[in-house]
Design brief:
This protein has 6 helices and 2 strands. The chain is mainly alpha-helical. The protein has one domain: lambda repressor-like DNA-binding domains (434 Repressor (Amino-terminal Domain), Orthogonal Bundle). A two-stranded antiparallel ribbon has the order 1-2. A hairpin with a 2-residue loop joins β1 and β2. α1 packs across α3 and α2 packs across α3.
């Protein structure tokens, strides 16, 4: 596995995702020609924390990642991570729970209320 965070070991896919996110943030920063000191100042963190963020360090807070995305004008992507329309697994589980048949007859207590 990988990094030990407060006694637990991060699964490899989680670690790889954090590293990729950090690399993508660093690339987006460089494409915009933003220096590390300027980026750190905009996020209100130290340059050392920015380096950790860009390495995908799991101890960097999610709030810091969100601030970095905001500075890079990509916060909308963060807000859509688990959008219900894109949650295929959740939608599939909900669809499986839909009853096969709805029986008429006895009405429940709320059926008479409008």
């Amino acid at each position: 596995m990988s990094v030990n965070l407060k006694g637990s070991v991060l699964p490899l896919p989680v670690r790889r995702s954090l590293i990729k996110l950090g690399q993508d943030l660093a690339l987006a920063r460089r494409r915009r020609r933003i220096s590390t000191s300027s980026m750190a100042e905009r996020i209100q963190i130290s340059t050392a924390t920015l380096r950790r963020l860009e390495r995908g360090d799991p101890s960097v807070s999610i709030g810091t990642f969100a601030q970095a995305l905001f500075v890079l004008n990509a916060i909308d992507r963060f807000a859509q991570l688990l959008d219900t329309a894109a949650d295929e697994v959740g939608l599939q589980l909900m669809d499986e729970a839909v009853p096969k048949r709805i029986r008429g007859g006895v009405r429940g207590p709320a059926s008479g209320a409008l």
